Amino acid sequence: MAQVPQTFFDALAVRTWCGLALESLGRAREEIDAINVYPVADGDTGTNLYLTVESAVAAVEAVFAAYDVGKPTLADAARAMAHGALIGARGNSGTILAQLLRGMAQVLAAEGETAHTDGSGLRLALRQAADSARQAVAHPVEGTVLTVASAAADAAGGAAHDDCGAVARAAYEGARVALAETPGQLAVLERAGVVDAGGRGLLAVLGALVETFTGEAAAPVAHQVAGTHARVQGGPPDDGTPHAGAEDCTDAVAAGAPAFEVIYLLEAEDAAVARLRGRLDALGDSLVIVGGDGLWNVHVHVDDAGAAVEAGVEAGRPYRIRITHFGAGDVHTTGAERPPRERAQRAVVAVVPGEGLAGLYSEAGATTVLARPGEPPASGELVQAVRRAHAREVVLLPNDAELRHTAAAAAEQARTEGIRVALIPTRSAVQGIAALAVHEPDRRFDEDVVSMTSAAGATRYAEVAVAERQSWTMAGICQAGDVLGLIDGDVAVIGTDVTATAETVLDRMLSAGGELVTLVLGDEAPETIAEHLEARVRESYLAVDTVVYRGGRQGALLLIGVE
Description:
Layout: E1 9-10, H1 11-34, E2 39-40, H2 45-65, H3 74-88, H4 91-109, E3 116-117, H5 119-136, H6 145-157, H7 164-181, H8 187-192, H9 197-214, E4 247-248, E5 260-267, H10 270-283, E6 284-292, E7 295-302, H11 305-315, E8 317-325, H12 328-331, E9 344-352, H13 355-363, E10 367-370, H14 379-389, E11 391-397, H15 404-416, E12 420-423, H16 429-437, H17 445-457, E13 460-466, E14 471-473, E15 476-478, E16 483-487, E17 490-495, H18 498-510, E18 516-522, H19 529-540, E19 545-552, E20 558-562
Parallel strand pairs: 9-10, 9-11, 11-12, 18-19
Antiparallel strand pairs: 1-3, 2-4, 5-7, 5-8, 6-7, 13-16, 13-20, 14-15, 16-17, 18-20
């Protein structure tokens, strides 16, 4: 069914565009993954672009949901789109796309409280997007997504009319021509017979922009580029020669390429980021730093991952740190197909709220997804983690009651890919710890799932946190700054002292019995709280053991589990 066209670029157009872009990338994801040949062979550009846009969609939807009456301004929606893409950016291609959207948002948000802009505003936004993305890359290379973005902006500047539909269509056609020419600009693309994967992904996003303003799908992309063997569809080249997948990047590939991809969000001042660029540029390649206003997304390929993270620590506060080891077969592959890595029989994938617990879960053999407070992972991120676990059977632990539906959607998608997935509805990380403790991968899958489910279900959970605002609770009215003790998800205690409130919560939980208390301390918990609670258990509850972990920046001051 044809999309109802948007006449102007307003908040609703931003929402429509993001949704259509996500659908387009969803259809093209596998195709884009399949044509990656520059410069690192990890074949996930399509997936990275999809996850980046999925995060942008979630942010835009959240802005619309916040309005009971009316709708957000164009500036509100554009900023949300850019912020969502920034915090959800995956890989080099996703990081660059986030900067493209940020560049557009800088122009669209400059309209202030204006309800909409026209084709002239869209033309300026596309120009700012291309220029800001190019500036974010340490060493731009032609024949990449940057080239395609610049061509789109150039073509938009020459559009015959000033309506948004004409500008969007001109940008798409300019990008389509530029994409077809990328094999002639990068030898690695020409040898493999493919166009640039990141540029192909951008074309899908621009096609969604055309559909937003015209109600019609953009012209299809040709399967072959005239005069070359370059492909824009998945599968091997026409001559049957196999090729390796690779993540789209914008620095030249060289022999002895770095072994690690390091990505993190960074809270830092502009001056510190300028110094960080120099540090990371000296450490590796494929450096892209995007963002602004105190929040940045950092991407680099290095041999010394620790040094790249330490540089971030010196610059500000890095978090959501992702380190991927390409492996010799990934980094040094130049055209030969590498043998596939053997799948493990079983794996556990878990969502965890803090870096400390991520380390604990990883030591226990789980593949982890780090969830920052207020920024829960999307289903696509969970699917990617299931794929990363590379197992025939996967046990999924969401560790949050509000993630149950998201996790269920991820499990269903993974099953369509032939992976056997069991979702255990853990509502807290301490329940996940209990489940992991009885996990035995050598058991039959069903037996292992039943045992882990039983252990999680037998674990009562609680958390101690600080109220952000006045609200009604099951324990009465709390004020901003009050200390809340939640047991099994409901507020049970309202206090003024963290340690005293935690002790009350623990006493209530142990009144029903228990053999083991698990305490997970957040970074902002009082230094003496663990010692105090351990002493309380030792003195008042015979034969009850206590184990203490440090969770890091986990949102809650304290997590408590009793089993």
